[in-house]
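Kindly go through the following sequence and its backbone structure tokens. Advise at your convenience whether the structure tokens fit the sequence:

___
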Amino acid sequence: MFALDKKAGEFGVTCIENLFFTEYLADASGDQVKVYLYCVYLSGRESAIHYPEDLAEALHLEVGTVKQALNYWERRGVLQRQSQNPPTYTLSSLLFRMISGDQSSAYDEDYVRFTQDVYAIFGERRKVRPAEISKAYDWIVDLKLDPSIVLMLLAYCRDTLPAAFSFNRAQEIAIAMKEAGVKTPEDAESFLGHDKRIREGARQVVRRFTRYGRQPTEDEMNLYKKWVDDWGFSQKDILDACQETVKAVNPSFGYLNSILEGIKNRRQGSESVKAQIKQESAQLEEVKEFTRRLGLRIAPQTLATTYQNLVEAFSKGMVLLGAKEIKNRKLVLEDLPGLLQSWQKMGIQNEKDLSAFLKKRQELLPVMRKLLDAAGQKGSISDDDLNWLRQWQTIFSDNMLLIAAEKSRGAKAFRPYISKILQSWQQEGVSTPEQAQLKTSAPASKDKLPAQNFTQRSYTEEELSGGMSKALREALEQE
């Protein structure tokens, strides 16, 4: 017979019982309060809103959030569901329910038992709000977890998390349990035991980084879980890797993650992280020594690959001695592989032989320089030059070599030319400087230099080099 004008409904007022503010507001979340107020608003007027999806659109909320809020108020006895499709509700009078003591429709029996169990779990350790109990009950309804499993989860959170932990964190664990296929209390015990080990391990890492006893954050927990579950590191491995973080000004889980990722990528076999770190530290010390001998002021890590490639082709001792020679000869790093290869061609295969050669080289350098000066030659002295000299020293004295060098003055190809002179002396039995001087004072033809007045077999550089390498090896063995 009577009806409100539509404008009156739009511009009128919506009454909220004071009991809502005194008994229900503090325990509800902001979204739950928003849903309740809008439900009261809709109850007094005609509306096109019939489904949770419509309500979610009107309030700019997620559909799941709206459904959880409706479930919450239904469990609190504020709403009573009348039908399912479309869902219809009756708003209870809060004052009447309190005066009459009629709480029969407030909760279903399962929810009542669950609420009592949750209160028993926390006791005096924490005040649990009805909204939190409702959220936990959603894990039973929505995730299909057994109530006993949810209660085990809450007890686990009570024992392992801070007293004021968020039920959102507990919900993350509940979702993980669902995804892991936890269906029985035994499954839950195994899952939560693993989660507890993860949390305790993360705590120990935190204690390595700071003197304050803070709890690990969720991001830190996720990193630790990745190290254990995905990368296969043990707790001991992770704590051993913490030793490497002392190089950082502010060590962190992120820095430790980069260390463990590097170890994972380089890992071979089943050796422990401690053994791998020890091995890599020793390798780094070798690279540092390599860098120092080169005389370079750069981060050793930049030469790690270069050094590793060299020691795979040559002995470590030869590489380190070669690095020192590069610095002494004022060469560049790119010259080192060629230098090492030239020593190998001379028959030098290890550090001992190379040390002996380099020692002998220091003795040969001034002699070779005198020969070059006597022959009027300029330029640097190569190892091939010294190898050539060492071969002829086994046959002639340095004085006779000097006489031959003087005789070769003006020749373009110094070593081949002086070699022919020495070969002729060898064939003619010239063995003293005096005899050599007489030979060089012999008259020369107009067309040839005096030292060219003989017939002699010609030798290639390859033949000479081969003989020199053999002579060098024999000399090194005698020493």
About this structure: The mean pLDDT is 81. The beta strands are 79-84, 87-91. The first strand starts at residue 79 and ends at 84. The radius of gyration is 46 Å.
